[in-house]
Description:
The protein has helices spanning 24-34, 85-92, 109-125, 150-159, 175-194, 196-200, 204-214, 217-221; strands spanning 2-4, 9-17, 44-47, 53-64, 70-77, 97-103, 135-140, 164-166. By secondary structure, the chain is α/β, with parallel strands linked by helices. The site of magnesium ion has 4 residues, from helix 1.
Amino acid sequence: MQIDFQARELTVKLVYYGPALSGKTTNLQAIHKLVTPDTAGRLMTLETRDDRTLFFDLLPLTFSSGSGIQVRFKLFTVPGQVIHNATRRLVLQGADGTAFIADSQVAETRANQQAFLNMQENLRENGLDPTSHPLVIQFNKRDLPGIRTDEEIDRLAERGSEPVFKAVAIRGVGVIETFLGLTDLTWRALEEKHSLHEKFGLDPDEFLRDVRVRLGIEGRAAE
Ligand SMILES: Nc1nc2c(ncn2[C@@H]2O[C@H](COP(=O)(O)OP(=O)(O)OP(=O)(O)O)[C@@H](O)[C@H]2O)c(=O)[nH]1
Ligand SMILES: [Mg+2]
């Protein structure tokens, strides 16, 4: 996290990690579409042929709190293709939280596992502890045939400590829930580390409620 006391601005870095073609870029595109223009900035996608991310994507989101602090979230994706490991490591540097986007197709199980191990290794390489780093997992592409069953995913979720979300990112399903889950975990970890409530008057519960309202979740729940 970057703290700029003079500008009263906090910048939080969130990284979408996972195997090639799991839907990381699609998650950012869906968030960009779903949030209002006063919250989302321009989505920078650096794509190559065949939808493959070559370097990274970046989506900035800005929330201003009641206490006059600007909180900026920078959402990054890594390129999933195996050959781009140096870039993945670089993008993961200084991450405050990570969403691991897994592909639900049974045929992709091994690719998911490899990418997960690769993420843990790159966290360590960047001096981040994989056992305490805020992490959520999304099983994407729930609309496809040949996917791991709901029961299987629920069992995996019970075994692990990370929150698990199911999604169809191309339709925007589960995308905001994943983002909010990640924001929640990350913010609480940052509060513990930096005492944001005490230093900036940013009450974690109030701030996270603000974020939900800005993303239309509170409104939707009341429908
Ligand atoms: N059927 C289906 N296709 C999806 C879903 N999410 C993404 N896709 C498709 O999967 C392909 C890859 O999606 P991307 O978002 O580019 O994947 P990525 O994880 O960014 O891939 P890399 O940049 O190579 O790491 C695209 O054709 C998407 O339209 C989904 O929920 N269901
Ligand atoms: Mg991509």
